Every structure is written in structure tokens, then in C-alpha cells.
Amino acid sequence: MKNELLILAPLPDFLLEPLRAAHVCHDYFHAEDKAALLANVGARIRGIVMSGGSVSPMALLPKLPKLEIISMFGVGYDNVPVDWCRAHNVRVTNTPDVLTEDVADAASALVLMTSRRLIAANRFLHAGTWTQGPFPLSHALRGKLAGILGLGRIGKAIAQRLEAHGMRIAYHGRTRQELNWEFFESLIELARAADFLIVACPGGEKTKHLINAAVLEALGSEGTLINIARGSVVDEAALIAALQRGTIRGAGLDVFENEPQVPEALMQCGNAVLLPHLGSGTHETRREMARLVVENLAAYFSGKALLTPVC
Ligand code: NAP
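^ thats the input. predicted complex w/ NAP below
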């Protein structure tokens, strides 16, 4: 008999098809009457599949008495109640490593787009403005300091790319690592030293608004904020104020506090490059992520070890 899963996110066909072949999948995300769906199938659900964009499943959990596993289509699991899962013997899996290089590519693209003003330059040409004179000068990367908040898998891959651009690297995290890159105990001191402050730590309560008005003030008018981690890490209202006042030079953002809603005031900031959370959004990577979701569930339900367990 097939196991029953609750799907909490819009998933691509190349993930849904193998999931449907192996399990009975109930699409909670698209269900018009979510309460009725839960009432009908909640008692039989053994697994949840969700993604970074899913709402927290916390409110659903009391209605899923047979839940055994949550499989995250993504590496960040800040919207999964991991402590609750540990306490209730619910396993959690995610999709680390396979997306690292793509997310780092997106981060270094944001560094280039903001420093060289590539988006503005592209608009300038398309608008036919080039015939009236050259595009204004921008800023070089070589010799500049990239300060990375969260030097994990993605942070390190970003550092390697930016070193290739001639940048110096420093980082802040909860622990100093055995690396040649400079470690800053204080985030605010890292912001003060950095030309680019790059957010690559997990989201969630522990990192909420780590980037606040004081950190942006320390980053200063020649500094740029890059965020490819989670919108929750940055106080978006403080960021908008800093961009409007020129407290910082610019921002390159792939993630937002209330995505896919992006504040109009942020969209109006000409010194911000904004991307629709596309860090891992390539055919190749999303298929690898899908494979991990499918294989983790298959491993769990056949009693084998999980490939990428969170808990
Ligand atoms: P990772 O390997 O676990 O690295 C996370 C890093 O953050 C670690 O170096 C950790 O170092 C640091 N960190 C954790 N808590 C911290 C805190 N409270 N303060 C400061 N630093 C902290 O994770 P990863 O694979 O690199 O992924 C990082 C994040 O990127 C994910 O959690 C996800 O939210 C985001 N992401 C975004 C996209 C996208 O499409 N934009 C795609 C994938 C992932 P310490 O333990 O030393 O503090």
C-alpha cells in the first residue's frame, strides 16, 4: 500500500511525477478547501514535502498524528519546527550541497551587477541613451573586502569566486574556522571593514534582523549589502531607509522578508538589484534537489539510512 504525503509547496513536475508514482500525494498548497482536505486525509499522512517558500507546518502538526518525515525541497529549513520534530520523533531531510555552486554564482553575479551597475547600464543602452554620451563610471572589485556573514558551504563557494575577482575575504559566524580568511568576532566590525557585506547564514529566529540599522550604518556610504540567504536576516524597513538616504551605496537581493511580495519602496530604489529568489533556480540543480527529496523518502519508507538528514 502506498504511503500518503501532504504537499505544502508548488513543486515542479519532475519532482511531483516520481512522488506520485511512489506515494499518494495530497496537494495542500493548491487545495481550495484546506480544512476539508486535512479533515479527510490528515489522520493518514506519513510525510510532508515542502520548500523554503512554504508556510510553517506548525499549525498543521496536531492534525497529522501519523507524521513521520518532513522532506524539504531546499537546504534552508528555517520554516521547519526542528525541535518539535526531534521531540516527536519526526525525521527531517533537506537538499544540501547540490545547490551550493548555483547560489554562489547568483551571489557573485549580484556583487558584479551592483559594483559595475550592469542592470542600470543595460537599461541605459536599451533606452537609446548611449548616443547622448557614455554610461557613468562604476566601481572596481579588485582589492575590495567581501565580508561574509555565515561562512558555510555557500559562503565558502562565494568566497572562492570573489577571490578570483581579486577581492579580499573576511567572515563572521558563531565560530572561528581553521582558514586563512580573517575572522571578525563582531558583525558590526565586519560591516565597518567590508566593501560588500554578504549574507549567507540560515534564516529563522536566531538570525532575524541580524542586519539592522546599526549594521547598515557601519557598512557605510561606500558599502553594498548582498543577501542570498533569507529575507528574515535583514530588517527590510531599515534597509529601504539606508538605500533611500544613501547610508549605504547599494544592495543586491535574491530574498525578501515577505516574498514574493516586495515593498514598492524597495522596488523604487535605483541603487538596488532585486532578483526573484532564483539562487538555486537552474534545471540542473532543481533536478538534483528533486532526486534527493525522492531518494530520502524512498530510503525512509524502506527502512534505510537517510541521504541528507537534518534530524
Ligand atoms: P551551512 O553550510 O549550514 O552554512 C551556514 C553558515 O551560517 C555556517 O557557516 C554557520 O557558521 C553560519 N551561521 C549559522 N547560524 C549563525 C548565526 N546565528 N550567526 C552567524 N552565522 C551563523 O548552509 P549553506 O548550505 O551554506 O546555506 C546557507 C543558507 O543559504 C541556507 O540556510 C538558506 O537559507 C540559504 N539559501 C538560499 C538560497 C537561494 O536560493 N537564495 C538557496 C540555498 C540556500 P557558524 O555555525 O560558525 O555560526
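The longest strand covers residues 45-51.
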